[in-house]
Structure formats: C-alpha cells, structure tokens
Design a protein that fits this description.
Elements lengths: L4 E4 L4 H11 L3 H9 L5 H9 L12 H14 L2 E5 L4 H16 L3 E5 L12 H10 L3 E5 L6 H9 L3 E5 L13 E3 L15 H13 L4 H17 L6 H20 L4 H10 L7 H18 L2 H9 L3 H34 L2 H4 L4 E6 L6 H12 L3 E7 L2 E7 L6 H7 L4 E6 L3 E6 L4 H13 L7 E4 L1 E2 L7 H7 L14 E14 L4 E8 L2 E7 L14 E13 L2 E13 L4 H16 L5 H6 L4 H13 L7 H7 L7 H13 L4 E3 L2 E3 L13 H11 L2
Parallel strand pairs: 1-12, 2-3, 2-4, 4-5, 5-6, 7-8, 13-14
Antiparallel strand pairs: 8-9, 9-11, 10-11, 14-15, 14-17, 15-16, 17-18, 19-20
Helix pairs in contact: 1-2, 5-8, 5-9, 5-13, 8-9, 9-10, 9-12, 11-14, 12-13, 12-14, 13-14, 14-16, 20-24, 22-24, 24-25
Length: 682
C-alpha cells in the first residue's frame, strides 16, 4: 500500500450544531456533513431530502432524440440498442431495451465483444446491423467519440441517436441527436450521470414522465449501473441510487425482485439486505466479469431473464467468470509488479506505464487500480498483441488522465475516458515514446501526492452504536460520498492475532485505559510490520455486527501508520528519493539531507543483517534505526547501493541476505558514488 498523506477534515462545531438543530438531524451526522464540506443548510437539506428529478429535456438534443425514436416505434422500424460490455453499459442496454419492448417497439440489442471488437461502435458491427435490417441505432454508454463510425452508418442509411456520459471531444458526431450532459452547449444543473442515468433520462422523456413511476420499474438497473460506474453520488445520482435501492429491498421483501438479480443475490449476497456496498462489491464485479472474461451478452441475458432456472444457471456462470477474473488479474498484477520493480526508471517515474504481451484486456484496468494503490501515482497498463496495443489507466486525485492522454494525442490511435480512469490504443513501437511524453506532461504539473481524507478524529471511548445510528442518514455511500473514515490516533498496539485461517488480522489496541479490537482484512501476520507496544494511528470504518441478537460496532482498519512520524516529511523524503533516481536537479536543502557514506551504509547493513533481512517498508527501517523522517531517502539509497553490490538482494519486495557473504567496496556502486557527489556539491 502506498504512503498517503492523511488529511483530517476541518469542521466548525458551532455551525454543525446549528445545522443539526435547524435541519432536525443528529449532531454527529451534522458534524460529518460539515466535515464533507456541506456548510449550508440548503445544501444539507438538498443532499438529505431532495427528491426532485431534473427535467430530461434540459439535456441537449433530447427533443430530437425523442422525435426520432418515437417515429421509429410508431413506424415499426428496426431499432438496435448499441451498448457496452461493462456493468454500466449492460444495465443501460437492459433498461432501454426493456422499455422499448414495453412500448411495442421492433427492437434488439448489440454489445461488442471486448477482445474481438473493443469499446464502442465499429464498422463491422454496423455492417452486421445493416444485414439485420436495423434502421435506427441508439447508443448507450458510448458513441460520443464514434465520429467516423456514425458517418459510416449514415452512409448505409442507418440513423444514430447517441446517449453517452463520457467527455466530449473537439468534434461532435453527426448523429440525429447527441444526448450528452458534457456538451459545451449543455446547460444542465447536473452533469454527472452514468451511462445508465442518461439512458434513464431518455426513457423519461419518451414516456413524458417525471421519472418516479419508471424508477419503480427500472430503479434497480439505474442504481446498479450508477454505483458500478463510480460516478458522483451527489445530486440526482443520489436520488436515483437511494430510490433504486429502496425499491430493490421492497421487491426483495415482496418476492418480486428482478429474477436475474435475485439469482445473483442468492449466490453472492444472501444476507437479505441490499445497499450501495453490496451493489459495488458483490453485484457489479460479477456483471463486469461477464464482459471481461466471456461475453457481456450473458450478463444482459441475466438482467432480462424471466425464467428462474435460466437465471440461476447464468448467475453461476458469471460468478465462475468472476473467480477466473480474480485469478487472471492476480497473475497479471504480479507480472506487472515484477517489471516495475526490476526497472527503476519505470518505478521512479511520476506516471507508471507498464506493458506486457497478451495481457488480458478485460482485467488491465483493475490491475492499474491495484498498481495505483501500491505505488500511489497514476498507472497505465498496456497489453501488446500482434494487431497493436491497448491500455487502461487509473489515477489519483489531482491528476487528470484524460488531459494527460490528450497531451499525448499524437502518439495514440484512440483514447477516451474520465479524469481518474481512461483507455487508449497505441502502436506497440510507440509505447516507449508514450511513456516519455506522458511523464513530460506530469513534469509540467505540481507534485501530486495520494491523500487519505479522514472525516474526524475519534476518541476510542466514544465508539458505540449511537455513531452507527447517526450516520445511517448519509447513505447511500459511493463516489463523492464515501462511508465516513475515522482516525484513531496514538493507539498502543497490544496484540496481533491471525483470524480467518490466517488471511486477516485482529488488532488489540488501547489508549488512556480504553481498549478496542479492530479487524484488518487481507493482511497476514508475516507481512504486518508493526511490533507490540508501537504507537500507531489508524484510519478506520465502522459498521454494525450482529451476534446472538446483539448489535456491536465492528472496526475495520483501512490504513495504519507510525504515530511518531510526520506525513509531509515522510512523503517529501520518498519523493526526493525518486527525484534523485530520475536525475532531477535537487534543491540545496534536499542535498543537505543526504547522509549516505560508509558509516551510514554500514549502519543500515548491520541492522538488516541482524534481522536476517528486511521485509517491511524503508520508512519503518528508518524509524527502527532511530533516524528522522528526512533520512528515509538516505536509507533507500543505502539499500540500493548494497543491492547493486550483491551484499543484499532485493526480491519480491523484500531485502534478503545472499547464501554467502559478499564483500565489495561501496565505491563500486554507481548510486553510492552519485550520492557522494551530491553531498560534496553542497
């Protein structure tokens, strides 16, 4: 896990108290809303209670879209809903297709194959639709970048209506209608719909409805697609997801939940309650897995299924696909990490671009997310094949991947996406040039560091079920409204015990006579780097845990750090090290912090040897050596020098000792000589 800067939200307690009283909510909930930046009573009430849906005709070209689609319905023309293979695209397709069927339309649908066709419209697919007799294509969750493909469809006599939510390029496609809230001429009060949200606005306009009656029918699809696409859960999206989840739970109680979703729920989440978490972490990954590992058509069939037996078969199939996805993703992640760790120029760059042959294109976006979490910087994973290369990237707050790819446009065959997630196509021989150019772009920006936002500090004495009751009003959680994250500071580590067959850890901690237990998922005793009696800070989430009819507070650890070290100093030292490795010009103040010499390297080696190697962070090594934060850079340089000489070996993220002692002069290490030169230049 990358080192993050912890930022505790500021909050005016008096203002929070006023909001609590005037809005009639729990004081702690008001405090958290203020911490999230909602300091206006109108904004708070809108966030919590607003139910007004936006007039769909405020979206650009909506009137033109309704006119053309209505004519096609009335005239019996063949309509094809052209979707996408992710959960947003599949739910969008299911929603619009189902609605058009209910209107008696002559309609079918088409979702391109991820491996064979890639994202969006393509001429071969258009040829197929022409042969089927399609007169009108309606795109959902794609189409805004299909400039040439829509021209081709038009030349074949096929009209196109675009509904999309992706960023708009310099040129709009020449379609009958282009419904996209991000158009420059759009004047929508809200623009952050997922693809399924835009498709929903289309059926509202077609039905001349305010949307609430349609939410009862399609709210499950809207909620699932919106949560899956990780768009903002503020504004209308919050209304759509909150309403959709409510309708889903009501249908679950009444036994009328959509057949396919019930079959999927029986496999992945039989707890009996649906919330934003279950949609995001249980339903959506399985819907996505169908498009990643097999065909998204199966996920679409699941959402449209009416036969229980058929739905159960498909639910098992896509759950198996999700298990396969996890395995493939793990293998590619390990391969990517190995490449990065063995190539310092990649590892120490501001934007990591890693490429490999025939990596499964269905999972490289997830792999990019794993790498961002590990390295704390934007990461792009590229899969090379005989026909070219395709990449998927993920970013951190403050670095727009879309803008970065736009800067590199001259090298790319195709690109698109959002600020934090984007995709690209490129010729294999241009990958190295792309790596260089995107880092040139990064050099033009101020240094970006990953941030962990803490909503508020908690005294362990105050942790009780009242907190859970107070925060219920904030749900549903998601992008721009994450589940509250609390900080427990200066906690003494009392014990660490493996649980769940050693896959997780239970930490016992205390402060000022108050003891608490916390669970740390996906952490093993062997990799846990802190020792008993260490003082640590923890970023935690709280949830309800029912046991023998009694509700207790479960504390889940999301991040942990040393209490003694200052975040900004640690991150600065880590960034200074990378700048040194890249050969950047260092400030005089940075040069003065470099302590690398024979004695320093000897001290580092002696400690590593005394511990039979070192498998934890260099930050913790620096702390165990009794050094200040600004010496982390020097510790890393010393370790690099010892590795260059073979005195120690860096393997799979750990420093290990060779089978036989190796003796060599430190002057034989290039990085040691360079560190000395920097010191001498001061």
């Amino acid at each position: 896990m990358s080192r993050k800067k912890w930022v505790v939200s500021s909050c005016d307690r008096d203002l929070a108290a006023d909001i609590a009283e005037n809005c009639g909510i729990e004081p702690f909930a008001a405090f958290l809303l203020c911490a999230k930046g909602m300091t206006d009573e109108f904004e708070v009430e809108s966030f919590l209670y607003d139910t007004d849906l936006i007039d769909p005709f405020t979206l650009p070209d909506m009137a033109e879209a309704v006119e053309r689609v209505s004519a096609a319905i009335d005239n019996g023309e063949r309509i094809t809903v052209f979707g996408d293979y992710d959960a947003d695209g599949v739910t969008s397709t299911a929603l619009l297709y189902s609605y058009l069927v209910s209107r008696g339309a002559n309609v079918d649908c088409y979702i391109p194959d991820r491996e064979g066709e890639g994202y969006g419209m393509n001429n071969c697919a258009i040829d197929t639709l022409k042969e089927r007799g399609t007169n009108l294509i309606i795109t959902v969750d794609n189409g805004i970048s299909a400039i040439e493909e829509i021209k081709y469809a038009s030349a074949l006599g096929i009209d196109v209506v675009v509904t999309d939510h992706h960023r708009v390029g310099e040129v709009l496609p020449e379609a009958i209608a282009v419904v996209d809230p991000h158009r420059e001429d759009a004047f929508c009060e809200f623009t952050e719909w997922a693809g399924v949200g835009v498709a929903f606005k289309l059926i509202c306009a077609l039905d001349d409805s305010d949307g609430y009656d349609l939410l009862q029918e399609y709210g499950d699809l809207v909620a699932l697609g919106t949560v899956a696409d990780i768009v903002s859960l503020k504004g209308e999206n919050r209304i759509l997801v909150r309403s959709g989840i409510a309708f889903m739970n009501a249908a679950l109680t009444e036994g009328t939940l959509r057949t396919g979703l019930k079959a999927l729920m029986d496999i992945c989440d039989p707890s009996g309650v649906i919330d934003s978490g279950s949609l995001a972490f249980r339903f959506a990954p399985r819907i996505n897995a169908a498009g990643r590992m097999a065909t998204a058509g199966r996920a679409l069939q699941l959402l449209l299924a009416e036969d229980k037996s058929e739905a159960e078969d498909i639910a098992r199939e896509i759950s198996d696909a999700n298990t396969m996805r996890q395995s493939v993703e793990s293998g590619i992640t390990e391969a990517a990490i190995e490449i990065i760790e063995n190539n310092p120029h990649i590892k120490n760059s501001k934007v990591i671009v890693v490429n490999g042959e025939n990596w499964h294109q269905g999972v490289i976006g997830i792999v990019a997310s794993r790498l961002v979490e590990r390295y704390g910087k934007p990461c792009i994973v590229i899969s090379e094949s005989e026909t070219g290369a395709k990449g998927s990237g993920r970013s951190i707050e403050g670095f727009s991947l879309y803008d970065a790819l736009n800067y590199c446009e001259s090298l790319l065959t195709q690109y698109g996406g959002h600020i934090l997630a984007a995709g690209l196509s490129i010729e294999c021989e241009k990958i190295n040039d792309f790596r260089k150019m995107i880092n040139e772009y990064a050099d033009t920006l101020e240094s970006i560091v990953p941030v962990l936002n803490i909503d508020c500090k908690l005294n362990p004495h105050s942790i009780n079920t009242d907190i859970l009751a107070a925060t219920e009003i904030l749900e549903p959680y998601g992008a721009d409204n994450p589940q509250p994250l609390f900080g427990l500071y200066n906690m003494e580590l009392v014990s660490v015990q493996p649980v769940g067959n050693g896959k997780h850890l239970r930490l016992s901690l205390r402060k000022n006579g108050c003891s608490v237990n916390a669970i740390m998922f996906s952490a093993t005793l062997n990799d846990f780097q802190y020792a008993i009696s260490d003082k640590v800070d923890l970023a935690v989430r709280l949830s309800a845990n029912e046991y023998m009819g009694k509700t207790q507070v479960s504390i889940q650890v999301k991040d942990i750090r040393l209490s003694a070290y200052d975040d900004e100093k640690v991150i600065k030292s880590l960034n200074d090290y990378e700048a040194f490795c890249r050969g950047d010009e260092l400030d005089l103040s940075v040069k003065k912090t470099i302590a690398v010499d024979r004695d320093f390297c000897g001290k580092v080696y002696k400690y590593v040897r005394g511990n039979n190697g070192w498998r934890f962070s260099e930050e913790l090594l620096c702390y165990r050596l009794g050094l200040s934060e600004d010496k982390i850079m020097s510790c890393k340089i010393a370790l690099d020098a010892l590795c260059q000489l073979g005195i120690i070996i860096y393997k799979e993220g750990k420093y290990i000792l060779p089978d036989e002692n190796v003796k060599s002069s430190l002057e034989n290490s290039e990085i040691f000589r360079r560190a000395l030169q920097v010191r001498e230049s001061v």
